[in-house]
Amino acid sequence: MPLSHELKDRITKDYFLRYATKRAALMPALWMAQQEHGWLSRETVEEVAELLDMHPTDVAAVASFYVMFNHRPVGKKIVEVCENPSCVINGATETLHRICERLGIPAGAHHGGATTADGEFTVRPTECVAACDKAPVIQVNSRYYGPVPPDKVDEFLADMEKFNVEGLPAANDLEGRAKHLRREVR
Amino acid sequence: MIATAPPNMVTLTIDGAEVTVPAGTLVVEAAREAGIDVPVFCYHPKLSLAGACRMCVCEIGMPPPPGQPARPPALLTSCTTRVTPGMVVNTMASGALKARESVIEFLLINHPLDCPVCDAGGECPLQDNSHAWGPKESRFAEEKRLARKGAPLSPLVVLDQERCIVCYRCTRFMAEIPGEAELDFFNRGYSSELRTINDEAMQSRFQGNIIDLCPCGALTSETYRFRARPHDLDHADSVCAQCPVGCNIVLDSRANIMARVRPRQNESVNEIWLCDKGRFAHHYVSSPERLTQPLVMGDDGELRAASWPEALGTAAVRLQQIKEQYGPRAIGVIGGRNLANEDCYALARFAREALETPNIDHRAGARTAAANPLAAHGLDAFNSTYGAVESAGAVVLLGTDVYEEMPVFWLRIRKAVMFGAKLIVANPRATEADRLALHRLRYRPGAELSVLRGLLAALVESPPHEHAPPPAEGGEGAPPPPRDLSGLRQALGGVTVEDAARESGVMAETLRAVAATLAGAKNPLIYAGARLVIRADAAGLAAALVNLGGALGDRRAVNFFTEGANGRGAELAGLVPDEGGLSAGEIIAQAAEGKIKALYLAGENVLATHPDAEQARRALENAELVVMQELFVTETARHADIVFSATSLPEKEGTLTNAEGRVQRMHSGVRNEAEGRPDWSIVSELSAEMGVPLGYAAAVEVTRDLLADLPAYAPLAGCTIPSEGVIAREHAAEESAEPSAVQWAPLTPGPSPTGARPLTPSPSPTRGEGNEGAAPSAPTPPLPAWERGPGGGGLILVTYSELLGDETMVRPTTELLMMVPEPYVELNRSDAARLGLKDGQFAEVSTHKGGVVHRVRVNGRCPEGVCFVPDNVGEPRVNVLLDWESPATVVQVRPAPESVGVAAGVPGTAGAVAAEGR
Predict the structure, then answer these.
(1) What ipTM does the predicted assembly reach?
(2) Pick from B182, B187, B188: which is nearest to A57 by CB?
(3) Of A54, A55, A61, the CB nearest to B186
(4) A77-162: what fold?
(5) With an 8 Å Cβ cutoff, are B184 and A45 in contact?
(6) pLDDT for B654-692, tens place per residue?
(7) What is the CB neighbour count within 10 angstroms for residue B226?
(8) CA-CA distance, B240 to B243, in Å (whole number)?
(9) Nearest residue in A to B192, CA atom
């Protein structure tokens, strides 16, 4: 599926004017492309490359540097379990393990994560998300949920049934993003 | 106290010694100036700065500002720090030594230390720097990281990820020098891996260079891997024999078998680069298919091996017979563009003195006698140096795909564009150069002359200003006056920009914009493709080009490219038609009619190179005698009566002259162990056999003679050829430093004599006193019926050579053959849709002469009404479609039956490469 005209327009008419080179608009372009498609496919990478006058390898290499760019299709809900000290001390390892078990996906999935067959969930560990007060904390589509100690996993998954799937506001909509991030799932 | 340095120079202290270098110099370079080698991995003088490896740290201090206490010196990377006045550098400070030791210790943690089986062993900066600067033992007792080993990045380059020290030399080269960022580091930190997108094979024609740049054996050559140790190699300095650029190379051989080719630094020619054809295509030299001894046609019509005396004797007797029976004009000599200067000179002497024929030419398919059409205007065919392009404000590429034709020179043009030169690309089809072009002129095939006329007319409309004279003391000089182009206006004879636009298919406003760009540029340079030299309208093109150069301020801005490894050398050595003699194309045409009775072909496979395969076949069949000097039994050689086994360029001693006219020495890299002889020796013995001894026993005698006798090399008389080569014109430059007075070359009015007719029905060119609607000139000749085809829906065929074709000299290198594109016919989207063809399907391309079946590539490169088929890939070659009598070819393209597509086997294509070597 090709990128939308709106996206291309925003890159060429807005972002190109901000920077000295087209290449400089790469990160917002990739982020917006991911907002549209959920992940960066080969076709998307090529389209971004053409838009920015870059080689597709160059674009793919930059994207590979960041774990928040998805290189495979992801589920509607991206569940990220923090695996840094505060959370691990409070049982995050077991939480991650149980979530995977309940959803029937391989545990210990690495940074790329694993996705359920029905395309509902992608589960992956993450580095510190700066919410130690909620340890062990989970991020669902970039929103905090927690604490989820291992014995609250069932409750968490039940809540997920009701979870309203929506993406983040656009990367340059700082106000909207801040509001969005302040909100919690419940 | 530091001595006052001249302006723009900086004086600093390095290891206690004062050094004065230009401002902006890097500390590592300043140290080198002072004879101090600071170890580096990531730093490379040809690449951007990375500061990635930290190997070059030095202790660098600054004198304190007045009245302030001195601050302690810091450890800085000398490869990213520029000199400042008074700087104090200590390259051997204990802190720096300790830091380097640590860098090495860290690098060796994961480097596998498999030096005994590593190609780089013995010529490896990581080895050398570890030895010189590293710790004597490692504290690392854990397990080393495992990563991809022996993983192909392409059929040519192999990656060992474990050895990689992540210096970014290879990725910086790909992104910066050819501008093809198809290789990059994926992931980060400890997981950094060199990859291409989806692990697809690299496509660049310059990827071999990353093997040279790699400082740790992570990138190795598929063709050289595990074949030799560096200390076992014999080296010979030579010159590349694959294209007219004349890159300097080193031939490395082991036990008299070519092991590899490396670039040799020559800043005037190839700097330190080499294209993949030059680097990898050397296996033909040691190929078992090589012709090992002379062949003579037996009574049974089969070629059989013969001794040298027999072959030479037979050839001499039969050539003599033809000469006596039909006269010397019944003999045609073609060849030389892929031979050394010595061979060309001896061949030219043999043709003139022994055969006494005026029919001599090195330019396959040439239609005109003048090998250098600029000679009529007192100019050489190439009037600048390669290096001059770097100071050009604008560069025009007319009718050439320089990326495929002269790849390493393209790198220099690209460099010029990166530094701000404005690139103007005029070609019937989009080329690699278009990516960087400011203006792209897509003209109708064959309409170069109209494009030039349009540019001239636009310049006459608004002439460029004279160069500003140096301003008078004290005051602002008056703005320089516009250049007087009234003479050019006359020479143009009333052609307007609009006329030219109609004829060429380029919009008038584009022509005006290009003219304005050129008029505003300093030192513009114009390069015209080699195929334009051999066209029937070459003289007209040359006149127009000279006028364009003149209008822009200097006629010497005009340069023609050439074809073959030594096309320029052959031209200067006299392998050109004499007064009244026939060009190469005419020789074949007349041989086909039975008028030329004997063909002497020196390294020229006319069946593949003459632009009419059927006519070339008839020529070979109808000629009473065909004598050849060849490396292989080519399809042409199969028709020969006598084939002499020659030696290849890497086996030869001698000289080559590159496209810019630089004479360069080459030394023999391997000995010919079979009965091959250098071409100069073959012709001189044959000449002696015919009673005209040339008297040469060694190549150096021929070199001496040719430098003394040939007018083109007169300025070089008495000088030796330096290792960087020498251009005779530059050598004599003092005399003619000033541009000669402007003389406007008369322009032939009317459509060019090639019949470079517009390809689509279009208004006939009009011409008059500059008035709108003036009386039309002679109407464009209608296309012959076969060209129009039943529905009249033919496409104009454009053909050109790819850098990598499945040629005799490429085929024995199987790895390179995998990089050769599958034969294809390239179509515009709308033509493809009209013809019912999709990308990847097979199509039959045909004329009344013949047909080929190729896979279709649908893209935006060809304009509507034009199709492209490369002329050096696929069997049969595209010249089976061409008709010598008709300079423009209209082809019919239709879907091929399914079965044909499957049967038309596809030679190796570079597809995805298996990722894991382990």
Answers:
(1) 0.85
(2) B182
(3) A61
(4) Glutaredoxin (3.40.30)
(5) no
(6) 999 999 999 999 999 999 989 999 999 999 999 999 999
(7) 9
(8) 7
(9) A65
